[in-house]
Specification:
Blueprint (H helix, E strand, L loop, with lengths): L6 E3 L5 E3 L2 E2 H8 L3 E5 H19 L3 E6 L6 H9 L3 E4 L2 H9 L7 E3 L6 H10 L3 E4 L2 H13 L4 E8 L21 E2 L4 H11 L3 E7 L10 H21 L5 E3 L17 H19 L5 E4 L3 H4 L3 E13 L3 E6 L8 H5 L5 E3 L9 E6 L8 E8 L7 E5 L19 E6 L2 E6 L4 H5 L4
Parallel strand pairs: 4-20, 5-6, 5-13, 6-7, 7-8, 8-9, 9-10, 9-11, 11-12, 12-13, 15-17
Antiparallel strand pairs: 1-2, 2-3, 4-14, 14-15, 14-19, 16-19, 17-18, 20-21
The structure holds ligand LLP.
The site of ligand LLP has 23 residues, from helix 10 and helix 11.
């Protein structure tokens, strides 16, 4: 019935997450509020880690892609789960460091890391820096030399794979701002450049073909393409690439029609491909990394809103206006993303109504969902939007000077705040 095992309905007919009653949470903490299940997050981490153990004999690592949702508590949980961390900015790196995350398990991505971010990465001693372009390679080399360090690097490769997902979140094709193209020979040229570049040590290759992907085939294809590149690199340059990062992008369930692939059903064919390619090309199986973000955090949170008004436009549609919107969840306005919507206090009733959930921002496109089936819903009800754990808070804004919501974590039915609600004072704190 639900997008995640963390959700249920209690004897009052209220939606629960991690055993906590969402209607009670809304009363106590106010709305909008984002509520995560800690057990759900940990369960997902373990499923990925076990998969790596099972299919690569532990010769690999799972990195949580912090862009999905980063904060001190998430970094602490990821550390406890023995995960690595993918960061893409000084801010994500700073958060991890402040949470005491071991820097040797941090992997620094990004298509335009600034000089200061690269310096910060070297100062903190991040495990790997994923180099995106020749300019960055030169800057990093010069910086590392100045600081008397050697950076262990990966190169980000565009493997030329067309994964079927929204064009904004597709990244493996040649027309992408990320990384080095394979087909044009750009990737091989840069491998050679790395070999001649001081104070960098090329240890791995990376690719990420896109996000919210349900097919296994593009992942298997990417693994083969990357293994061939490792073999070609060895043959042409003698360089042995010992680490292969295959990225993230595993699709999750937002609505009933989404059919996510089980982790193992992805990992098994990909690992078989990696091993078969290793044999075919006569190279060793590299240390494998994967970078799930959405599939760790996405389905393990709900956002709770209070309904302010219900506007029926005869023969057109019914708008249900909530006390949040694109400021806490810009995914509908950006990608027309699907969501499951529920009335939290009538979670066991039939969804007989069809409504358009409208945010409170001064913008017609500020919707969370159009024509969504939902239970009866009235002014004052708590509306729950499911699967808001990834790329919601992390992409939130203060548009219309609306403070960001509070974020809660539930464990064994106990609720705690992990990010405080922003106040109006927070909104003006940098104004002069
Ligand atoms: N690794 C790299 C290099 C990435 O660029 C990403 C996501 C991931 C891993 C994690 O992908 P995931 O497993 O979460 O799909 N804002 C969009 C998604 C953008 C994804 C960016 N990169 C959304 O809300 O759908």
């Amino acid at each position: 019935m639900f997008v995640s095992d963390s959700l249920n309905v209690n004897e009052l007919g209220h939606l629960t997450i991690g055993g906590a009653d969402t209607v009670e949470i809304a009363e106590k903490y106010g709305t909008p509020v984002i509520v995560y299940s800690e057990d759900g997050i940990r369960r997902n981490c373990r499923a990925f880690v076990n998969s790596i153990d099972k299919y690569y004999n532990g010769n690999g690592r799972v990195l949580y892609a912090g862009k999905a949702f980063s904060c001190l508590e998430m970094c602490r949980i990821m550390n406890e789960e023995k995960m690595g961390l993918d960061v893409v900015s000084g801010g994500e790196l700073y958060t991890a460091v402040k949470a005491g995350f071991p820097t040797d398990r941090i992997y620094f991505h990004g298509n335009n890391k600034t000089y200061n971010e690269l310096k910060m990465a070297l100062e903190y001693g991040v495990g790997r820096i994923i180099v995106d372009n020749p300019d960055e390679l030169a800057t990093l080399s010069a910086l590392a030399k100045e600081m008397g360090k050697t950076a262990n690097i990966y190169m980000r490769i565009k493997p030329g794979i067309d994964a079927h997902t929204h064009s904004f979140i597709m990244t493996g094709q040649i027309d992408s701002k990320f990384g080095f193209a394979l087909e044009t020979g750009e990737a091989m040229e840069c491998v050679k450049l790395c070999a001649e570049t001081e104070n960098v040590n090329l240890v791995g290759l990376h690719c990420h073909i896109g996000s919210q992907i349900f097919d296994v085939d593009p992942f298997v294809h990417a693994a083969e393409v990357m293994m061939k590149l490792i073999a070609d690199v060895k043959a042409e340059t003698g360089i042995v690439i010992s680490e292969l990062d295959l990225g993230g992008g595993f699709g999750i369930k937002y609505v009933d029609s989404d059919k996510p692939v089980e982790f193992d059903a992805y990992m098994k064919p990909v690992s078989e491909q990696v091993k078969a390619s290793a044999e075919k090309y006569g190279i060793d199986v590299p240390f494998i990394l994967i970078e799930p973000g959405r599939s760790i955090a996405g389905a393990e949170a709900v956002t709770l809103y209070t309904v302010g008004n219900v506007k029926k436009i005869p023969d057109i549609r019914t708008y249900v206006a909530i006390d949040g919107g694109m400021c806490d969840n810009p995914r509908y306005i950006l990608y027309q993303s699907d969501y499951t919507v529920m009335c939290a206090s009538r979670a066991n009733e039939n969804k007989d109504a069809v409504v358009t959930v409208a945010g409170k921002c001064c913008e017609s496109g500020d919707l969370i969902q159009e024509n969504a089936p939902v239970q009866k819903v009235e002014k004052g009800d708590i509306l729950a939007v499911l699967t808001t754990g990834a790329y919601n808070y992390s992409m939130s804004s203060n548009y219309n000077r609306i403070p960001r919501p509070e974020v809660l974590m539930v464990k064994d039915g106990q609720v705690r705040t992990i990010i405080k609600r922003e106040t109006y004072e927070d909104i003006i704190k940098n104004d002069m």
